[in-house]
Write a structure and sequence with these properties.
There is one protein chain. The chain has 145 residues and is mainly α. The protein has helices spanning 9-14, 39-49, 52-122. The longest helix is centred in the middle third of the chain and has 71 residues, at 52-122. The protein is built from three helices and no strands.
Length: 145
């Protein structure tokens, strides 16, 4: 912030004029503390340094990038929703039916093994009874195969 002071005519004569040798572009001010300056102040100061043409180009680029990012995120979100609901409606029931079928096949196989073990225990020395031919164990096939 700029502080204005009225200077009287008497004070103008007392002002010391510096020669070119005494003048410097760099400040020797030790009173200036850059830690008091916030990031927002520094960015605002860049407004004076960067030309309007470049600022508009950067602003346009950032706006375009933000727009594309928003569009991409929306597309990814909607795609994830469609894929997830499709999986729940189509694949999950199929997986449950396949698991149920495998459990049924395992149960039938176990029942056949128990039946074969009972026949072996009921006949002497693991031979088939005289009136019955020996049964061959068949592989259990799921329906439709």
């Amino acid at each position: 912030m700029v502080k204005l002071e009225e200077v009287s005519v008497d004070q103008i004569d007392e002002v010391e004029v510096l020669s070119e040798e005494d003048y410097s572009d760099f400040s020797d001010d030790e009173d200036f503390d850059d830690e008091d300056e916030s990031l927002l102040d520094r960015i605002t100061a860049l407004k004076d340094i960067i030309p309007l043409k470049h600022r508009n180009r950067v602003s346009s680029s950032v706006s375009t990038l933000a727009s594309w990012s928003k569009t991409g995120a929306t597309f990814v979100g909607k795609s994830a929703w469609v894929i997830t609901t499709s999986m729940l409606l189509l694949v999950l029931p199929l997986a449950l039916e396949i698991e149920k079928e495998q459990a049924l096949v395992a149960y039938e196989k176990e029942a056949m093994q128990q039946q074969g073990a009972q026949q072996m225990l009921s006949s002497p020395y693991g031979q088939a009874p005289a009136g019955q031919p020996q049964q061959q164990q068949q592989q259990v096939r799921p329906p439709g195969f």
